[in-house]
Design brief:
Blueprint lengths: L10 E4 L5 H12 L3 E5 L14 E4 L7 H15 L3 E5 L2 H9 L1 H4 L3 E2 L7 H6 L1 H10 L7 E2 L4 H10 L4 E5 L6 E4 L2 H11 L8 E5 L8 E8 L5 E13 L5 E7 L3 H14 L3 E10 L4 E8 L17 H9 L14 E3 L1 H13 L5 H6 L4 E4 L8 H19 L8 H12 L6
Parallel strand pairs: 1-2, 1-4, 2-3, 4-5, 15-16
Antiparallel strand pairs: 6-9, 7-8, 7-9, 10-11, 10-13, 11-12, 12-15, 13-14
Helix pairs in contact: 7-8, 8-14
């Protein structure tokens, strides 16, 4: 940062899921801002960071929203001044949109249409917004009943991706009619509230998956934005980025700017595209109206990222975007190790290719010379999770888990890539 920065405004991170909250604490903490984390898991690695002034444990999922609002307002009063509030999950972004009025008493965050975040988190409504803005997206069908899903299964061109419309990140791929029907029955657990979408599969490997991370001001102008590509994912072929690289893609950047301007978006954005070689177009499939857990991949030459751009703009300071750093790599250590084994077992990479893929890594999610405790906390959490899975009692009164595993295994076969 070439200009002096006023970092007196505190930051409250709303949930520290995965590694995203930790990355926000480190980025803004290194800038000099006082950072606080609110999360339901006392073992979350962000709590152990030297850049977390204090951690607050709160059960977001179990507590009524009005009690959560009161709890956050209490934190605001303890801080003694209005703090910046940043959600790191879809549920956090939706909570903030629904309770913006009372939360503004103690917190600062972008003023947006209260319906915009829910619309972007809903894949059905997001596709409608994209279509209105002239942004292509994969062909999708939203069945309202099992009968409609069966009818679609009979005429579909396979493979077909099944996703949750709202809430869950559940996703699988069906290669033929029977698989689609089985997966639909498992995923649609509340038929009275349809929440499964059926989407065309866009062929290609991980190299076809592109990302955009950016920050848009109160005029929906992009003050900072960088594009990148997934190298590996967790789950393999169908999950979050475990190893990514920054690459310039002017077309993806321009599509995103035009899309966000058309809908009047303000704030941090994490967005995903898939390149369709069949028609040469980039198709949007995922829009997260919040900071993404991968955001530290997208760091410019002067250290700017979306968290810092947000902090500076919200506190009335100038944002110097700097230059993108093509070739910059970022990884999530444990997730990429697990994914790499699967890619290797499937024959998608060799041991030599795996080692070469780590050239150029400039940052990782947990390991840090100046902040080692979160990595130790993550290791402990991983060991506890391995033990839980190893010694948990399997369910024996239902065939559903076996069917679900079969569907998921089928969805990750490299022959589809």
């Amino acid at each position: 940062m070439s200009l002096p920065v006023d970092t007196s405004t505190p930051v409250v991170i709303l949930r520290s899921a995965q590694h995203g909250g930790l990355a926000v604490a480190r980025s803004l903490g290194r800038l000099g801002a006082p950072v606080y984390i609110v999360d339901g898991d006392p073992r979350t690695p962000g709590f152990f960071s030297r850049y977390c002034r204090q951690g607050f444990v709160w059960d977001f999922d179990g507590a009524p929203s009005e009690r959560t609002v009161d709890y956050l307002l209490g934190i605001g009063r303890r801080l003694g001044r209005r703090a910046l509030l940043i959600p790191t999950t879809d549920s956090g972004a939706l909570f903030l949109a629904s309770n913006a009025g009372p939360l503004r008493q103690s917190f600062l965050f972008p003023e947006t249409d209260p319906e915009l975040a829910p619309s972007l988190c809903s894949k059905q409504r997001m596709q409608a917004l994209a279509a209105a803005a002239g942004v292509p997206s994969p062909g999708t069908f939203f069945p309202q009943s099992r009968r409609e899903a069966l009818d679609y299964a009979g005429r579909a061109r396979y493979p077909v991706i099944l996703k949750a419309v709202e809430g869950s990140a559940a996703k699988t791929i069906a290669r033929e009619k029977r698989e689609l029907i089985d997966a639909y029955q498992i995923m649609e657990d509340r038929p009275e509230h349809p929440n499964v979408m059926l989407q065309e599969y866009i062929p290609g490997g991980d190299e076809a998956s592109w990302m955009f991370n950016g920050y848009f001001n109160d005029r929906s102008e992009c003050l900072f934005g960088i594009t990148g590509r997934k190298i590996r994912q967790n789950r393999p072929y169908a999950g979050i980025t475990s190893l990514g690289v920054c690459e310039a893609n002017p077309e993806v950047a321009e599509i995103t700017r035009r899309f966000m301007k058309a809908i009047g978006y303000r704030g941090i954005l994490d967005l995903g595209y898939r390149y369709d070689a069949r028609d040469g177009r980039y198709k949007v499939f995922d829009v997260n109206p919040r900071i993404g857990c991968t955001f530290r991949l997208f760091v410019s030459s002067n250290g700017m990222d979306v968290a810092r751009a947000w902090y500076l703009d919200m506190t009335g300071q100038r944002v110097e975007p700097g230059d993108a750093a093509p070739g910059r790599k970022w990884m999530v250590e444990d997730l990429d190790l697990a994914s790499s084994f699967r890619y290797w077992r499937d024959g998608a990479i060799t041991a030599r290719q795996w080692l070469q893929s780590y050239r150029g890594i400039q940052e990782s999610a947990f390991l840090s010379d100046d902040d080692p405790r979160p990595a130790l906390a993550r290791c402990v959490n991983d060991l506890l999770e391995i033990g839980r899975r190893t010694f948990s009692t399997p369910r024996r009164n239902s065939q559903e888990p076996a069917v679900k595993r079969a569907c998921l295994e089928q969805s990750l076969r490299p022959s589809l890539q």
